[in-house]
Amino acid sequence: MSEQAVTPPFPASALPHVGTYRRVLPVSLERMYENALDWEHLPHLHDSSFGSIACEESGSWGWRARTTDPKGAESLIELRLDREHRRWITRNLEGPHAGAEIWTHAFDIEPRRVDIVVDFFVPGVPADLREKVGAGYAALYSVLYDEDVSMMVERQRQIDARIDTASSEGLCLGAHDELVLPITVDFGGRSVVVTRVDDEWVVFSATCPHMLGPLSDQPVEDGCVTCPWHGYRFDVRDGRCQSGQHLQLPPIARVEVVGSDVWLRPAGLANA
Predict the structure, then answer these.
(1) Measuring CA to CA, which of 174, 189, 214, 268 is 20 to 30 A from 116?
(2) What are the residue ranges of CATH 3.30.530.20 in the chain?
């Protein structure tokens, strides 16, 4: 448990407190701030709670966005990051939960262990129902953080593992007739997916260039792969983003068939 005290809410924002959710997460404070500011992942990673999101404004301060839930109910949500007090405040400005505020404090216990304290403030809840409402909010946040932790941990692993060099000697994948595609392999410290699209060999990065989301388990449909974290869609043949973002899958390797064997070579080298 962290020895740091939770900073109380501003008096002007005082609302009935209905409950608290507390948890220790195996991630850094940096990943937590990053996750809080990352509005794009909500309808993709948390599709049981969010149907869509349209950001109205965002920056280092936080974001404001219009969302829908899976049933189509619309809300206006604002998140403001307060780094000085190691917290962020999420306010429901419009919609079914208008007026509710969620205050999240995050304290780093160790380099990659964070103690979070999430307080729920909901207007208009009778005293005898606050415990029940608070339990509902806590259950929701337990699910949301289960989903967020997997993304944050995987992102940290990818950051730790990234190496920008590749072997100039290449890598033999095996005999052409024995390969079961797609396959994911490490090549020069980077993870790549090897498959065929319309009888053409393709090699693409197994991680999304946006926030290193995992692409290796995602199906290739119409020559494209979609990131499960934020919905960014890339053409695996040329790496170009098809969903409108200014990103591209980096060229890491290419396939060279030598006799009956399939080799990976660095993308920048010509065929031998």
Answers:
(1) 214
(2) 13-161
CATH 2.102.10.10 segments of the chain: 171-266
The pTM of this model reads 0.77
Find all residues with CB under 8 Å of 197, minimum gap 6, and list them. Answer: 220, 223, 236, 237
Is there a contact between 55 and 65 (Cβ–Cβ < 8 Å)? yes
pLDDT tens digits, one per residue of 218-256: 999 999 999 999 999 999 999 999 999 999 999 989 999
Pick the CATH number of 13-161 from 3.40.228.10, 3.40.50.1820, 3.30.530.20, 3.30.110.70: 3.30.530.20
* Radius of gyration for the alpha carbons in the chain, expressed in angstroms and rounded: 23
Asked if the peptide bond before residue 182 counts as cis, ω within 30 degrees of 0, the response is: yes
| The pLDDT of residue 3 | 40
- Single-letter amino acid code for the residue at 134: G
Tens of pLDDT, residue by residue over 104-117, are: 999 999 889 999 99
CATH 2.102.10.10 at 171-266, yes or no = yes
CA distance 250 to 62: 29
